[in-house]
Write a structure and sequence with these properties.
Blueprint (H helix, E strand, L loop, with lengths): L1 E11 L2 E12 L3 E5 L6 H8 L8 E9 L2 E2 L9 H6 E4 L13 H11 L6 H10 L16 H12 L6 E5 L7 H18 L2 E6 L2 H7 L2 E6 L2 E5 L6 H10 L2
Parallel strand pairs: 3-8, 3-9, 6-7, 7-8
Antiparallel strand pairs: 1-2, 1-4, 4-5, 9-10
Amino acid sequence: MRLEIKDFCLSYQNKEIIKNASLSVDSGEVSVLIGPSGSGKSLLALGICGYVPDNLRKMRGEVLLKNEVLENTESARTNFAKKSLSIIMQNPKTCFNPLFSIKSHYAETLQALGMRADLAFMESSLQEVGLEKEVLDLYPFELSGGMLQRVMIVLALAANPLFLIADEITTDLDLLTQYKILEILKKVRKKRNLGILFITHDLEVAAHLADKIYILKNGKVTQYSDFPLSANKLALIFKQGA
């Protein structure tokens, strides 16, 4: 199965900032989108999910799942499409209300997906990412950044999506925690045959994870297919210009 983005274009004040971006993600594989900070990677990720910021405008482009075009906005998408594509954002601390427990956040997510807030399901899914069931009774400020990111992975996988977008999810973590998060993603990808679009500016991470690599630079996406690859090769491409 394949998630395809074709000729996607976003503009700001009539100036194109994402220009005819095309890429694809296959089931069971990791497509990595890399680019300098501020190049528009996160904006493209939000656009793919139908969340276009109010100050931007989608000019053209399609997002296809199972060869069917998804609607342009999150509100217009079918329940199937919403459950088939999940996104994890960069800073998990901004995604949680400090006044509510992890259990409350999880139950709210399940209810929004039309699912029952089953305690046994919550506990088993936490174990999948190496968290104990006691985490459910804790509050966001009681968890480390790495633990919160694991909770974000759990919430994103709650509906058993076909594809996952992971947007700079290791950026604010120390190296050991980064490694643990990447290993969790590799494990769930294999177990669920999950297709992952992994967004990063870290060339080492890109070289470690990627089945396919796309480079976003100056608003344009190009595919890099010279495998096996290394961070040094990718750095040279950045220096020369994508």
